[in-house]
Amino acid sequence: MIDQELLSQVSVEAGLSVDSGRLADAIRNVAGFQVAGEFNADVYQSRLASQGLTAQQFENNMRAQMILGQLPTAISSSAISTGWELNDFVRMQEQKRAFKAILVPAQSNDSVGGEEAAEAVIEEAAADAVIEEETAEAVIEEETAEAVIEEEIIEEEAIVAWYESHADDYRSVERVVIQYLELDAATMGGEIAADEETLLAQFEAQQARFITPESRQASHILIEVDAQAPDAEVETARQEAEDLANRAMAGEDFAALAVEFSQDAGSAAQGGDLGWVEPGFMVQAFEDGLYELTLENPVSQPVQSGFGWHVIYLREIRPAEGMTFTEARPVLLAEYQEEEDERRFIEQADRLVDIIYEDPTTLEAAAAELDLHVQEAGPFSRAGGEGIAANSGLVKASFSDLVLLQGAVSDPVDVGENHLVMILLKEHLPEAVLALDEVRDQVVQSVRQQRAMEAAEARADEFLVLAVAGTDLSVIAADNGLEVIEAEAIMRDDAAVQADLRKELFLMDVPGEAGPLTEILKLSDGYAVVMLQSVTDGELLEEDVLKSQSFSRRIANSSASSETFGFLRMLRSQSEITVYEDRL
């Protein structure tokens, strides 16, 4: 909201505007106002009326949005990638490193041997058919006792010291227990009988609805990108999809393009084939894009959905067909039942609110009159809980001042269609440091883990001394029963090497003339003694035209996002901003 207001003010100061012709073109291009790909004035008016808007209000809002977008669009469109930026990006992104490493895991005494050793001894003894049963049992008992390494005993002083120095790690979050009344149209009563005359009258009045919809045989190419990804990534994916759309429009085989480039695991191997698609089968954006196509112009420009960017190919159209009353009757009956359920729900909801407002400190009166049960949920935190406590609206109401501080029943909380609850605080559990007895097992485990990490670090230090003195890492690992990891050309995104090791490896300095660089790296559950042997910077070859274009787009889009963000940050720094939190 702040950014929008700042853009609005600076746009006015800069004299930015949108002329009526451009506004009209934008409105005519809104898919929701079109029929068969053409703007329809009747649809335009009816859509606005359904939202409670006049044409003037909508046009003013759209004009304002278009003006607000002019500055960010101008900044974004001016972003470029230089040759130096491209080469530097490739140098880092495509960099390869050769290394050899010993993994030194953090292991507490109780995690070594123990049950696994005991099970191994039991299996070995039981498998020896020569030993008689009594003798086998004696051997099992004796060898199991030797194999199990006693669990390390942690002194009370160490437990207390750790607990006191890490008290913030053992705090309970603020939680509440609530009581609530639930009103749900789906559980309010049985079916309501509808006579045939009523249903027939509805069918005749709405006969245009009951047509088997037109279906379309379609294929698509998907370029995946999260809708919440940075703008630069979204734009890069869009441009890749646009390139593929243009190639298909130019005559390249769509199925072949889908096999090679589509990231839809379910259809790529079949050339992107989606079969016959009817309205409601796909997400709305995809459906709108498909039904705008014609057999004369069967390939779409990129269409965005929550999955990424789609290039859609219309292959065939199957016309709509009418439904008989018998075919439409189940739909009419379900709608009649739904309308009656909704009517009863509204009546009950109005009465529930009236009773609660008469005495907002209790749920009992409403429960008695409406034959509802006072239910309970919790304890749960501001992050929510299970069941109905997973609903964000309910959680927000539970921690509102009305419920938490005033001790009153909440306003109605919608938890679904024709489904609401009203809640009352039963118990408030403030944030606090948990007693040692409640978290003793966690504290003991933390002390053991810390000691295991210290022991692993000490071992890693010993191995580093040996490695620097010239002992091969493979020999050190073999002598100590440890794992060696080795790679000649690992890249930053190579999943063959665990993520924490890979991250630390690419933070190491480049080896100099003295030869390989050997260091100890801390991992999430231990250490690694790493010998970084060589670093090979990435480079673009002349034939890597597509890769060069893709990387250039990523750099330019990233620059555009950074510059737009920087512009907004500059506006904030130059402005006096007051936030009235009580009005939020």
Describe this entry's structure for a reader:
Mean pLDDT is 83; it is low at 110-122 and 124-150. Helix 4 (55-77) packs across helix 20, helix 5 (83-93) crosses helix 20 and helix 8 (156-165) packs across helix 17. The N and C termini lie close together (11 Å). By secondary structure, the chain is of the alpha+beta class. It has 20 helices and 18 strands. Strand 9 and strand 10 form a beta hairpin. The protein has helices spanning 2-13, 20-28, 41-50, 55-77, 83-93, 114-127, 133-147, 156-165, 196-205, 231-249, 254-261, 284-291, 325-358, 364-370, 392-398, 401-404, 436-468, 473-480, 499-505, 545-573; strands spanning 34-35, 38-39, 96-105, 171-172, 175-184, 211-212, 215-224, 273-277, 303-305, 308-318, 321-322, 375-381, 413-416, 419-429, 432-433, 483-490, 517-523, 526-536. The radius of gyration is 34 Å and the shape is extended. The longest helix is centred in the middle third of the chain and has 34 residues, at 325-358.
Key terms:
alpha+beta, Triger factor/SurA peptide-binding fold, Chitinase A, domain 3, four-stranded antiparallel sheet, 20 helices, 48% helix
Helix content: 40-55%
Strand order of the largest sheet: 16-3-18-17
- Categorize the overall geometry: extended
* Total DSSP helices: 20
The averaged pLDDT comes out at: 83
The separation of the N and C termini measures 11 Å
Q: Which quaternary structure do these chains form? A: single chain
Note the main sheet: 4 strands, antiparallel
Number of domains: 6
Beta strands, count:
18
Kindly provide the radius of gyration, computed on alpha-carbon positions and rounded to a whole number of angstroms: 34 Å
Structural class: alpha+beta
Low-confidence stretches: 110-122, 124-150
Strand composition percent: 15-25%
